[in-house]
Amino acid sequence: SRSSAAASSAFDFRAHEAWLMDALTRTCGSSRTDVDVDACLAYKSNETIGVRTTTEVWTSSRLRRVRSTYVDGGEVAQIFNCVAYPSTSTPDAPIFGADLICIGKGAARKVLIGVDLQPMCRDASYAAAYVPELLALRDGRFADVAETLGTTTPSTKFY
């Protein structure tokens, strides 16, 4: 289900999709079980505009649901979205989301990458346990990524 619909596309996120699915399976999916997805959602194609969409869903002992969707619009659009919901047996684990979006081509190409960790609860003890480590990661190793890539954060550029 991860075969590229537009193999000739000069840019895609298929390697990133495979890496994330492998990482989630290795770390959280030792008992991975694929979930049947309605056929109209598992694969959809619009040959008129050259877009193919694939979706897969699975569960494991540590993840109650993982849903990944890939939109392959060839040279014009490549979009990968994944959301992983933790098992109810790990109530302090956040919901994980990743969006990799590339639209346009040539000089008009825009790439947006978003990673989101949404806490399952919002109390002070939860924040005290996890937020400092996340802030250290953001302000340390990843502090200058946007500048290195010649990009700005949405809050700086758009708001």
Automatic annotation (TrEMBL):
Top-level division of the source organism's lineage: Eukaryota
MF terms in GO: cobalt ion binding; oxidoreductase activity, acting on the CH-CH group of donors, iron-sulfur protein as acceptor
Keyword Oxidoreductase annotated: yes
An individual GO BP term: phytochromobilin biosynthetic process
InterPro entries with a match to the protein in the record: Ferredoxin-dep_bilin_Rdtase
Family the entry assigns: Belongs to the HY2 family.
Protein name stated in the entry: Uncharacterized protein
Species assigned in the record: Ostreococcus mediterraneus
